[in-house]
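User: quick one
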Amino acid sequence: MTKQDAAGMTRRQLYEAQQRKRSIRIAATSTALVIAAIVVLVPLTPGWEKVKRSFFNWDTLVDTFPKLLDAFLINIMIFAWSAPAIAVLGLLIALARDAKSPALFPLRIFGAAFTDVFRGVPVILTVYLIGFGIPGLGLPRPWNSPYIWGSLALILTYSAYVAEIFRSGIDSVHHSQRSAALSLGLSERQVMRDVVLPQAVRNVVPSQMNMLIALQKDVSLLSFIGPVEIFRQAGVFKSLLANFTPYVGAAIIFLIVTVPATRYADYLMARQMRERR
Amino acid sequence: MAKLELRGVEKRFGEATVCDGIDLDVGEGEMVCLIGASGAGKSTLLRCINLLEPIEDGAIYLDGTDISVPGLDPQTVRSRIGMVFQSYNLFPHMTALENAMLAPRRVRGVTRAAIQPEVEELFARFGLADRMGNYPDQLSGGQQQRVAIVRALAMRPEVMLFDEITSALDPQLVGEVLDVLLMLKDQGMTMVLATHEMGFARQAADKVCFLKDGRIIEEGAPDAIFDTPKMDETKAFLARALK
Ligand SMILES: Nc1ncnc2c1ncn2[C@@H]1O[C@H](COP(=O)(O)OP(=O)(O)OP(=O)(O)O)[C@@H](O)[C@H]1O
Ligand SMILES: [Mg+2]
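Assistant: Done. Structure below.
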């Protein structure tokens, strides 16, 4: 039997509890010090009063926040139709790049070229080229809408990245799974669909979550070709009120969405790491 | 005519010849054990029989039909020959039952309802009736390997290949898997095993083949191989393996 003290803890548990308390004390003290330094030092800078007025104006924030939220609905809308399209196209491109049959060789080349091109060009350039270029062809309404072509630019770029992630997921499935499935008489296609893909997709969920978060932010790039989404709306307010606070408001709205999503993705990633071990 | 006949089977990986002219007859209902040091080519030979590896030269006959013709559709052959691996290789995203029903449903095109009674019966026969709903990571190694055997049997194969199926198991779980092999033998299954279980090979095999460097150096009845080996290589190997 181990020796226990009054609280029913072993010597080791007692020691660990003490250590934990000590770490918490140190972490709390150092955090408080850093915050105090910022609160005390930043207002001492010569430009602080001006910055405070133009970036952290409470009244402006309260006045513009609802409109910013409205504009954010446009971001959500663009995100909502782009994300599924990206998932489907990304998966198709991943499969095309891994196609083995010679008849599908052109598909493989196309898949490779596609990912090279769209991963190689900055998103904003793709948005400009497609978002201004295609409506420039003089298409009739609604086909000249920047929503359509801007979304397409995002879909193409993100599909290229998402396809590569799916491919790494497919590679991560051990080849013995393929052997086992083939030995049962399944065809290559059935092996892919029933055995490899389900495991591959599951393996890359955390990475794809991170792509979704990046996409959510990059939707704002469409503001450069027309749609009045949250970033553009904040810009409108800035010009109107000669104040930068709406940008801070927009940043807050983004953070409300992306911080929980990022935490969740990290949680999934950590859980997967534990399962692998 | 034997159920399975290998004639001059040759397999190369690049420069390395891993199967170097293998001749082997496996009669209907026979159990043949392949023994030999690590790297002798046992696994590769089994993979060749199941057409998981194409062979360079020679021929493999199943019921007298050459199944090693280049370009032949391997699916039909594989659905007639079951294979079980050292590392179980169950599909981790499916329950034991789903693992076993996947191939019949996809390859034979039968419905879930049509195949389920037969597959459940298999699970029951091998003492897994209460494990069908479990995922592989909820099963012990011995249970996983028995599920893998059931999964192969669900295709109603005519020949079964076993590649060191007890090597990854804790010693106390080996017995339950070997018992399954004895049951299959009683039922008249034709089987080829690569194995390091010398005691089992001696007790259960109809024929034992000793492989070295991709060749069958010596073959014969278990007693002959284990008690009166003729070749020096066999003697040396057994001396080490039985120590
Ligand atoms: N896919 C492959 N590519 C190249 N070489 C291979 C491949 N598979 C097997 N080999 C080689 O072929 C030889 C025989 O391997 P094999 O796995 O068949 O031996 P084994 O008798 O099953 O050994 P063990 O008892 O360790 O399982 C080894 O030298 C191995 O390195
Ligand atoms: Mg082997």
